[in-house]
Amino acid sequence: MKKDIHIEETYPYPPERIWRALTNSDAMADWLMPNTFEPKVGCRFQFRTKPAPGFDGIVNCEVLELDVPNKLVFSWCGGGLNTVVRFDLTPVTEGTHLRFEHTGFRGMKGMMVSAILAKGWKSKILPHNLPSAAGRFDPAGVYRTLAMDGIQRDCA
């Protein structure tokens, strides 16, 4: 059994701005989780969040593919699962079309975790958090973190 996650969104920003939000560690911390990400193929990094039953709150990852500003692929391993996350960006008249995939969920546990993650990816992270972070870059490409505005992140 497997249940992959596929989502498509269109954002009112050019691909370069969405790319910055996808590959800037501070921006990524605001739209997803605190992390040690660096945009380099082979970079091993972690996401950290609050632990939950059966999950220590750590997601170990490795950048598998990087095609600036078109594609980012990384492994996502945590809670006994080994999956892959992929972001494909395409310029469109409205800005950027994002094709997102989170694949590799296997077995009953994978199906359960997929359902939980899909809810977050579909309802909050991709339609709201990511474009919000993309909008926080100034014209020079400098990112203004949520912490700069005194807003607390809900992840440890």
Please tell me about this protein's structure.
A hairpin with a 2-residue loop joins strand 4 and strand 5. The chain has a 6-stranded antiparallel sheet, covered by helices on one side. Helix content is 28%, strand content 33%. It has 156 residues and is α+β, with helices and mostly antiparallel strands. The protein has a single domain, classed as START domain (Alpha-D-Glucose-1,6-Bisphosphate, Chain A, domain 4), CATH 3.30.530.20. The C terminus is likely disordered. Helix 1 packs across helix 2. The protein is built from 3 helices and 6 strands; from the N terminus they run E-H-H-E-E-E-E-E-H.
Detail the topology: elements first, then pairings.
Elements: E1 5-11, H1 15-23, H2 25-31, E2 44-48, E3 58-67, E4 71-78, E5 81-92, E6 95-103, H3 107-134
Antiparallel strand pairs: 1-6, 2-3, 3-4, 4-5, 5-6
Helix pairs in contact: 1-2, 1-3, 2-3
Average of pLDDT: 92
Task: Outline the biggest β-sheet.
Answer: 6 strands, antiparallel
Distance between the termini: 32 Å
Beta content: 25-35%
Structural class call reads alpha+beta
CATH class: Alpha Beta
CATH superfamily: START domain
Shape: globular
How would you classify the quaternary structure?
Answer: single chain
Number of domains: 1
Identify low-pLDDT runs. 149-156
List the defining traits of the structure above.
single chain, 156 residues, alpha+beta, Alpha-D-Glucose-1,6-Bisphosphate, Chain A, domain 4, 6-stranded antiparallel β-sheet, 6 strands, 28% helix, disordered C terminus
